[in-house]
TrEMBL record:
It comes from Sutcliffiella cohnii. It holds the Pfam family Glutaredoxin. This is NrdH-redoxin. Residues 5-63 form the Glutaredoxin domain. Signal peptide: none annotated.
Length: 78
């Protein structure tokens, strides 16, 4: 099954950059939604993830808050 990965970020977030670098290093394709440039996307993110912070990553419906490489790889490898 193809992985659907969406990363919600902010343009000034250094942890978001770490997350994107991590995903890129494993050649993981993802869609990026920059929420500080899109207030509607921010509202939808909070409704879906129940969190106000970024980065938030959605992998096939599974949420990962912040930069958690171990959890990311566990979900991606299942």
């Amino acid at each position: 099954m193809k992985q659907s990965v969406t990363v919600y970020t902010s343009s000034l977030c250094p942890v978001c950059g770490m997350l994107k670098n991590f995903l890129n290093s494993f050649d993981i394709t993802y869609e990026e939604v920059i929420v500080d440039l899109n207030p509607i996307a921010r509202i939808k993110l909070v409704q879906k993830s129940k969190r106000l912070t970024v980065p938030q990553t959605n992998i096939n419906g599974n949420w990962v808050s912040g930069f958690d490489p171990e959890r990311l790889l566990t979900i991606l490898n299942n």
